[in-house]
Amino acid sequence: MIVACASCGAKYRYEESRFEGKASKRIRCTKCETVFEVHNPEVALQPDVRSAPPVVNPAPVSTADTTQMRGPGHDGPHPSETTKQYVLSKLRASLPAQNLKLPAGKKLSLAVISGVDAGRNFPVEKPRIVIGRTGADVSLSDSEISREHAAIEVADDVVSLVDLASTNGTFVNGSRIERAELDNYGEFEVGGTTLMLIVTGEAL
User: Fold this and answer.
1) CA separation for the pair 146, 54 (Å, rounded)
2) Is the Cα torsion angle 145, 133, 118, 11 positive or negative in sign?
3) Under 8 Å between Cβ of 160 and 95
4) pLDDT in tens, the chain (204 residues)
5) Residues 6+ apart with CB under 8 A from 3
6) Which residues make beta-bridge pairs with 184?
7) 180-186, long-range: CB < 8 A, 24+ apart
8) What's the CA gap between 64 and 93, in Å, rounded?
9) Fewest C-beta atoms under 10 Å: which of 23, 33, 122, 164?
């Protein structure tokens, strides 16, 4: 769905799955920094839909339902995650380092095709790179992404995209993923940014 900032009118694409069953979400405009509310059209059409059963030992509910990332230096679980879920997600997030290596005779890169960093290109120069904000291997200006949001892991010709327990999730073809393989020219979304994997042969 397309949403527009109530203040400056800037438009954004917002995946309906990010509502997570809630009636509305508040997001921050990356242009004018205004926080505005977006309503879930599915909940509006089905007001009697019951929420999912609570998880065991749920974490405290955040008082601010703003779709924004954890601040720098905060590596703990998001309030919507239980400690157990957070630890498990970290354990399954990465392959053993010894299994990762760049393919011979090929060059990999990530191109930003939409979002505030559109037009930028990041070479993949090691078998595991982290996508996030300041300090990450692929450092983006998108305020909707986590400090360490996702990782690209390369094991020869197999390139995997791994979500690092991010707040707003990592999406492939509109579906939130924990791990997914990427093909050449495969696209994925982190926050309000869309990236594309590009694989080329090395020049002789």
Assistant:
1) 25
2) positive
3) yes
4) 777 777 777 777 777 777 677 777 777 777 777 777 777 777 655 544 445 555 555 554 444 444 444 444 444 444 444 554 555 455 445 555 558 999 999 999 999 999 999 999 999 999 999 999 989 999 999 999 999 999 999 998 999 999 999 999 999 999 999 999 999 999 999 999 999 999 998 643
5) 11, 12, 13, 14, 27, 38
6) none
7) 182/152, 183/159, 186/159
8) 28
9) 33
Amino acid identity at 115:
G
Give me 107's structure tokens: 């060059």
Question: What size, in residues, is the chain?
Answer: 204
Q: What is the pTM of this model?
A: 0.54
Q: Which residues of 135-166 are buried (b: 16+ CB within 10 A; e: fewer)?
A: ebbbebebbbbbbbbbbbbbbeeebbbbbbbb
Q: Which tokens in the block code for residue 114?
A: 């939409």
Tokens encoding 178: 């924990």
Rounded CA-CA distance 27/14 in Å is 10
